[in-house]
Amino acid sequence: MMPMLSSEEEAHSRAVSALIHERIRAAGGWICFEDFMELALYAPGLGYYSAGSVKLGPDGDFVTAPEISDLFSRCVARQCAQVLGGEGEILELGAGTGRMAAVILESLAAAGRLPERYAILEVSADLAQRQRERLGTLPRELRERVVWLDRLPERPIEGVILANEVLDALPCRRFALRGGVVRELGAVEGGTVAEGGAVVRGAVLAERESAADQVLTGACEALFSDLPAALPEGYTSEICLRVAPWIAGVANCLERGLMLLFDYGLPRAHYYHPQRTAGTLRCHFKQRVHDDPYINIGVQDITAWVDFTRVAEAAVASGLDVAGFSTQAAFLLATGVEQFMADAADTVAHARLAGEARRLLLPGEMGEAFKAMALTRECDVALEGFALQDLRRSL
Ligand SMILES: C[S@@+](CC[C@H](N)C(=O)[O-])C[C@H]1O[C@@H](n2cnc3c(N)ncnc32)[C@H](O)[C@@H]1O
């Protein structure tokens, strides 16, 4: 059963939907899925990430690895320490509640490897506020190093760029194959809905296919030619054309060092497997996962898995080296997750950490679906986090 919306959520969702209806009408009756996702998540002051709701954590819509356990962030800190060596800076993109930033700073302080600066670029004003509150509780020595940016830094950094579960939040396009032709999925004003006895026209949105433009057709043709098997009739999936410009923009900010990305995703040939006929789009609402982006508009998260081959190609085109690609489990084991568990103060703490570690590591939980990718520039360090597993050949 899908949880009910509170009256506030209902009102908020109505406002976001009204904006989307307006855009659909202005566009002549249809907008592509990428535009729908952009509005639902990021419309200024209204979208899921732009407006205030709990989002992350047990009381929100979903939990991420840094929210499940500080073990994750301690392992990331260890990888940062190896690259930073006590200088340089960290730039975190999409820092959520700020919990990972706090644990990384505490861990690096304990290791005597504090970065000169910990910069955060956050598109959500609401989450940036939560980050300020969380990081404001750190000792002055640490909190003074944290700065918030409103755009990517103009001066490239030396150090580490971090992004956990950011790529999956980039708006993507959706396509379906009909008679060998690529069609694009998008949103139209749909049907009617009864509300308090009155019938409100166009109060709901519906999915509709349209002719694909040249950009999508070209991108899909390039994609299909790179796959080992042809895709069947009706095959529906996503393609994120924002990955390449996003990676290029972030790569420009890295003069020397490491970009470390974590997300759920797959190499291309697995992502676009002929049997994955309905794609990977997922919505998160109050800890429920479902695949209908046209409900709970503006109050639920919408994500799609990441095609890591596309990420690697974009990185190489931007002059970065793909220095590592592994499962999240292999990354955490290589960066000492077991040792951090063993450091627990007592058996109760150890049992709690063991439970958290299981969620991070087990294949049926986050261990295999989530991947870690290391992209480097002028960084000849043999990265600790990727010493146990090298999946780069699958890309
Ligand atoms: C799923 S949350 C992950 C938050 C956090 N990294 C964590 O793991 O708990 C996605 C985050 O990415 C941010 N975000 C989305 N698009 C972004 C972009 N283009 N640049 C920077 N941050 C972005 C969101 O506001 C949010 O903080």
Quaternary structure state of the chains depicted: single chain
Overall mean pLDDT: 94
Number of helical elements: 14
Shape: globular
Structural class comes to alpha/beta
How far is the first residue's CA from the last residue's CA? 38 Å
Name the hetero compounds present. Answer: S-adenosylmethionine
Helix content: 25-40%
Please describe the biggest sheet, giving its number of strands, its sense, and whether it closes into a barrel.
Answer: 8 strands, mixed
Summarize this structure briefly.
Helix content is 35%, strand content 26%. It is of the alpha/beta class and 395 residues long.
Protein described:
The protein is α/β, with parallel strands linked by helices and 395 residues long. The protein is built from 14 helices and 16 strands. Strands 2, 3, 4, 5, 10, 14, 15 and 16 form an 8-stranded mixed sheet that branches. Strands 1, 6, 7, 8 and 9 form a 5-stranded antiparallel sheet that branches. It has a 3-stranded antiparallel sheet with strand order 12-11-13. α4 (70-84) crosses α5 (99-110) and α9 packs across α11. The mean pLDDT is 94. S-adenosylmethionine binds next to α3.
